[in-house]
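call fold(seq) -> C-alpha cells
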Amino acid sequence: MGQKTDKLGQELENLHPEELDRFLEDNWQDMLDGDREFTDFMRGMIRKKNLEWKYVYTAAGISEKYGQEVISMRKHTTNRDLIIRLCLAAEFDLEDTQHALKLYGMQPLYPRVPRDAVLIVSINRRMYDPADIDELLLKQGCDGISGEIS
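ret:
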C-alpha cells in the first residue's frame, strides 16, 4: 500500500464511529471515488504507455468524442465490450484489464465463461487486434468483440 493509504489506515485504527464524519471530511481528497478512480487509472496507464488518446479511440473503434465521455465517466456505458476494447487498444495485460473492468463496475473476465476464456488467452498472448480476436471468438462459437458500439 502507498503512504497515504498507510497513513489513513493508522488514523482509522483508533477512530470512533462518531468521528467518521470529521475523518471523511478532512480526508475527502484522498478517498477513492469509483468514477474518478477509473478515469485516473485509464489516464495514468495511457500516459505510462506513451500512447495517444486518438490512437486508442481509433483502435477501439469509437469516436474520440464518445471515448472521452466514457473515460471521463460523463457518459456511462453498460457495454462491457467497449471497456475491453479500450483495454485492448491500450495493450493492457490481463491484470490491468481486470482492474479496469472492476473500476468501471463491470464483471472481470471469468475463466469458466467460454467467451471470456478466449479473451483471456488473447490478452495473455498479446493479441490486441479485435479482428484477430473476433476470428478466435467466432471459431469457438462466441460473439465477436468488434460489434458496433453505441
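The mean pLDDT is 89.
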